[in-house]
Amino acid sequence: MTRHLVGLLGGLAVAASMPPWGFWPLAPLGVILLGLATSDSRRSRAITTLAFGIGWFGPGMVWMWFLTAPGYVVTTLLFAGWHAIAAAISPRAPAPRAIAHTLIEAARLVAPFGGVPLATIAIGQAGGPLLPLARIGGVLLITWVVFHIGLSIGGRLAAALDRHDDMPSWAGILAGPLVAILLASLAPTGRDIGSAMTIAAVQGGGRQGTSALEVPSRLVTEAHLAATASIPADGRVDVVLWPENTIDVNGVAFVDSAQADAVAMEAARLGVPMLVGVTEDVSTARNLELAANDGRGFVNAHYVVTGEGAADGAYVKVRRVPYGEYVPLRDLLESLGAPVGQIPRDAVAGAGPAVLDLPDGERLAVAISWEVFFADRVRDGVTAGGSVLVNPTNGASYTWTVLQTQQIASSRLRAMETGRWVVQAAPTGLTAVIDDRGRVLERTDVSERRVIVHEVRLREGHTWYTRIGDQVIVALLGLAFALAALSARVRSRA
């Protein structure tokens, strides 16, 4: 029982390393506690790790409660259970266990329903010295380093307390992480092309924790028009960025709507393009690159609007929020009496590259809201020529700031991974500007009406991570785990 309690405390420490609590040293400390609680019994290891996972994902995923309470409980237990299985099937030694837990995190980035990549170890390290590792191995390399160091130190302490001779050597503990940190300091970071763009990120303000039913879309649009009107037409601004979902049109294409005309008037006043988030019916939307659909549902798109009106075509969100923008297994859940009517229509996914092209030919990488948690979407925009990443988002319906602050941390990871500046805009917060080294240069508070005007540097080129992605890392980890498991089996037989 004591081991299980120590595991739970370790998981709580990992959760506390993440925003909004955010003290990065607690993650390795939490994994040290897990390593300290390690037992020779596979069953005991699994239970201890299950407790660790519940302590980790319970607080870290609490934002999901406001989306789907049953889904929150199931997801917490599912992810904790995956890590428990990893502990049970891997050798007792810290090195293969660290690899097994990292592979579980790799699976969590893509499953279920496309992945739920929040409350990751890396999110808690976005404010710490391990952040540069992201430019060579992304989230997974940071995860492996934390698990490797934590489990190894915990294993060493456990061996010392039990008077065992099989303590991991300090060379074995530190060699791999030190090599990775050295490589990160030498790895390419992309290149500044010598020019800049001034972006005005608009936050209309309003009460946090409100749904679309409580705040009509018209009021959201008016709030952002009013905030945009405060920008002086002095030629300092090059682009205006609005958040996701700031305009909702029904029964008419956005390009033909009164809302498009109102935005175009502001664009004409400022003499710059405006990037605005629009929700519209699939049946009326025109010239959008969409996944296969039956003509029903809606799209979550970002349009470029100039003084002449909205461009005919837009970027449509590809990664949709499960049980937020669409309902997986809708027919089955409806037959079981689940309240799927709360999301009466599914969002239709886009099919285009993750970019927005400005009238002057400049190309921006774009990740709408949820997509910024997925490194592959951002890589898609950067490899397609994006010189800056824009992240229009909408977390207004979530109470507290767990999701919003984790999103800022994810934007910091994406900045480091790609060597690009990131501009994030949200209707009620958080809006921020992050440089290519992952530093938050400016950020709003929740619910305030504010426009951040900031010059961002345009960049090109690639980091190692944008070239290789996660697949190579997963393959190397899988090979290393297989070799470690085989070696442990040979030693056991001997």
Description:
The protein is of the alpha/beta class. It folds into 2 domains: 186 residues, no CATH class; 271 residues, Carbon-nitrogen hydrolase (Nitrilase/N-carbamoyl-D-aminoacid amidohydrolase, 4-Layer Sandwich). It contains 15 helices and 14 strands. Strands 1, 2, 3, 4, 5, 6, 7 and 14 form an 8-stranded mixed sheet that branches. Helix 13 links the parallel strand 10 and strand 11. Helix 3 runs antiparallel to helix 4 and helix 5 runs antiparallel to helix 15. It is globular and about 75 Å long. The protein starts with a helix and ends with a helix. The mean pLDDT is 93.
Write the layout of secondary structure elements.
Elements lengths: L1 H15 L9 H11 L5 H19 L8 H21 L4 H15 L12 H4 L9 H28 L8 H17 L2 E15 L13 H13 L9 E3 L5 E2 L9 H13 L3 E8 L16 E9 L2 E2 L4 E2 L13 H6 L19 E3 L5 E4 L8 H9 L5 E4 L9 H17 L3 E4 L6 E3 L5 E4 L6 E14 H5 L2 H23 L1
Parallel strand pairs: 1-2, 2-4, 3-4, 9-10, 10-11
Antiparallel strand pairs: 1-14, 4-5, 5-6, 5-7, 8-9, 11-12, 12-13
